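Incident review: delayed structure delivery

Summary: a single-chain prediction request sat in the queue longer than the usual turnaround. Root cause was a stuck worker, restarted by the on-call engineer. No data loss occurred. The affected request and its eventual output are reproduced below so the record is complete for anyone auditing the incident later.

Affected input:
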Amino acid sequence: MESGLRVYNVEPLVEKAHLENDVVGSIAIAEMLWRTNIIAIVGGGTRPKFAENTVLIYDDISKKFVLEVTFTSPIKAVRLRRDKMIVALQREVHVFSFPVPTRRLLTLETRDNPKGLIEVATLATPQKQLLVFPGHKQGSIQLVDLGTTEAGSSSTPATLMAHQGALACLAVNNSGTMIATASTQGTLVRVWDSIHRHLLVELRRGVDSATLYCITFSNDSEYLCASSDKGTVHIFALKDTQLNRRSTFSKITFLGNYIESQWAMATFTIPPECACMCAFSTRNSVIAICMDGTFHKYVFTTDGNCNREAFDVFLDVCDHDDF
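Output delivered after worker restart:
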């Protein structure tokens, strides 16, 4: 935020940490390592204290910065694993061992990536430490298994043509076995098998173009949710795709194959044209966090019903110690 950084617990909704502007300045990027005390911070906004080309690691237990890495151009995104730090620049992705020692393992080139699209499987010991980022051709993605990476080694990414248009969103499930992609057209989300690199299912958000803000797998990979500037969060079934709705014009041709386009199993509405992140919570529920400061929680059923269980203005939720 312009005023610093806040960390919240989601269920129950409560503020857990509050770093003011005089400590961290205005923030462009903040990335937490799981639910730990380690937070990656990149400065930005109108009152930055730190450069936009430097990632700093903050330890919230010792209340100090413990690591600083500077690059030659502005940082677009940071992702943390317990053993890796991945940093995206406009045309490069850098992979570091993390946290100790912190050394560069490899640098991967990509096409222009102003959104900083990178995703990595986050399980502590997954079978596949999958890293995904845009490829050299428009609409393509590159896949790298970080589990085989050693300092100084050359790793050739596998390439998958996901869309004809430029990419807007990427997501990887926890185990790294599935990838979800969406283009700037925003009408379709495609889910891929990352091991065999083939299309598993095509999900239709809508017919009109939209700006997709977020696509996210559930922890068990049974569902996927997506948010856009249309003010609707869509929930799709992945394990039992028969739960998704079909339409009379659902079959289209993609790469010479007929693909059945599936519509959302369930939907709920949020403020339109307001950037929003969505993610799955417990008991078949989805939480949406919006840029207008609102918190939405909906419980969904497999027959398509969505009921609001909670609403709050999270910027008004303070730690009780503040009073």
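Verification: The CA atoms of residues 186 and 210 lie 5 Å apart.
Action items: add queue-age alerting; document worker restart procedure.
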